[in-house]
Amino acid sequence: MAKKPKKAPAEGDAGEGEGPVKSKKKLIVIAAAVLLLAGGGGGFFLMKKKSAEAHPDPAAVVKVPVVFLDVREMLVNLSSEPGQDKARFAKLRIALELKDAKVEGEVKPLMPRIEDTFQVYLRELRATDLTGSAGIYRLREELLRRVNVAIHPARAEAVLFKEVVVQ
User: Fold this and answer.
1) What is the distance between the alpha carbons of residues 167 and 161, in angstroms, rounded to a whole number?
2) Residue 37 CA to its chain's centroid (Å)
3) Is pLDDT above 70 for 59?
4) Residue 159 has pLDDT above 80, yes or no
């Protein structure tokens, strides 16, 4: 079995053009793969960075203790219900939750304004306005709104009830 000698490609034959076409295809495939890997790696890096920012190290987070500022105990006569002659009273002990001691320093001089705001609002309430947990929740939200208006630009985080008695 004799081997046939290879023919040299003739001028204008398709064989001459095959070399550069195959190498261009290889080059495009390799470049696409490199771009895909680089894009995936970059995306992973960015997502990892965002994740690290969203969840900081617990040891690095320093918690500033909140401050609770007591408001004087209030005894208020409530508005009477239609057709009711008996006077109704509400006794409240409230604490304000503040962000830090700096805010406490800003709020303490404004306590008379806060107490006045609370008294004016509470005197307009009826005993039925304070019934149930929904009534107390509405009262808490309204008092928080009013205290934040009274102490602006400082801000109270929450109004906390220590005691609520309605007679």
Assistant:
1) 17
2) 35
3) no
4) yes
